[in-house]
Amino acid sequence: MKKPQSKILIVAPSLDIMGGQAVQAKELLENLKKEGIKVGFLPVNPRPPGLLSYLTKIKYLRTAVVSFFYLISLISRLKNYDIIHIFSASYFSFILAPTPAILVSKVYGKKTILNYRSGEAPDHLKKWGWIVIPIMRMVDKIIVPSGFLVSVFKDFGLKAEAISNTVDFADFQFRKREKIEPKLLVARNLEKLYNVSCAIRCFEIVKREFPQAELVIIGYGKDEANLKRLVRELNLNDVNFTGRVEREAIPDYYDKADIFLNSSDIDNMPVSFLEAFSAGLPVVSTDSGGIPYIVKDEYNGFLVKTGDYKALAERVIYLLKNQDQAQKLIQQAKEACKKYTWEYVKEDWFRAYNSLVQDETKN
């Protein structure tokens, strides 16, 4: 597939906002640059210059200040690019970030890709559809990371294409564990939809069977105080809340862990799963959203119903007591990593970008 000749602008969160969107935007930006493609980056969360940056520390002023400078950036920079690649979450975030980029792109007559990435899409489109679906219809192409979201968008009369997330596996070195120890890792932001309390309750059961068990929880968020309170109520030891961890430090946590645990109620295609695959961690997870599209139960991981912390614990304990099965899952997950490399998916992105230019030529 011919490399795109168009100038592409990626509009997405910077790594100042920790999360899957920022990580994937960074991965895509770096990979396109390596291919020699003309690409720029416009953060939806710009840092105001000079003393104005202090205004972002004021709770109710922060959004207005950042949005103002974001809009100025859109107006001044979009005109210099041919294709505007817009990353998107859901709910109010969709109104604040993707919507202005879409509208300004239309004013300038630019081709647009909406790269929607939220597992909350079913609820978002149901409750906010009256305003967001007409905006989504303005874009030239909708791309999502999984077949799960393709199906969701289809239910609302929107056509979407799936292009998988990618991971720089050089950062997450595979480590063969001769024996899987009860060292559990949770790597999700501490928000209600990820239901980390379910993982903590799971750990409490595992701890009864394996008193030496440890749980590390990477991330931060609004639910942190509630989760720490739950740990105290359950009288649990060996639970470590790391708080915010910078991107370059995360691989070390995977390397030190032995089992990756996820208990989200709502999800799409978590990059953390791919990182766990690459690092050699068996995955035990709930089956929310798009997760079954990347984890096949009893093949490259274990899946249970959402909210079932007892079933999660049973699966973790099973792995610890059945080391051969654990090694089998690990090897099959490692093999699955090939589908999430840049070399595997880059042709899909080239095809998507080039199709926009071809459509313009036809018109």
Outline the structure in words.
The structure is a single chain. With 363 residues, the chain is α/β, with parallel strands linked by helices. It is 45% helix and 15% strand. Strands 2-1-3-4-5-6 form a six-stranded parallel sheet, with helices on both faces. A six-stranded parallel sheet has the order 9-8-7-10-11-12, sandwiched between helices. Helix 8 (224-233) links the parallel strand 8 (214-218) and strand 9. Helix 7 (196-209) packs across helix 11. The longest helix is centred in the C-terminal third of the chain and has 21 residues, at 342-362. The protein is globular and about 60 Å long. The two termini are 22 Å apart.
What Rg do the Cα atoms give?
21 Å
Order of helices and strands: EHEHEHHEHEHEEHEHEHEHEEHHH
Mean pLDDT: 91
Strand content: 5-15%
Point out poorly predicted stretches. none
Q: How many distinct beta strands? A: 12
In the sheet with the most strands, the strands line up as 2-1-3-4-5-6
Number of domains: 2
Give a quick account of the main beta sheet: strands, pairing sense, barrel closure.
6 strands, parallel
Q: Based on helices, strands and strand pairing, what is the structural class?
A: alpha/beta
What is the CATH level 1 assignment of the largest domain?
Alpha Beta
**Helix proportion:** 40-55%
CATH topology of the largest domain: Rossmann fold
Total of DSSP H or I helical runs spanning 4+ residues: 13
Shape: globular
Give the CATH H-level superfamily of the largest domain: Glycogen Phosphorylase B
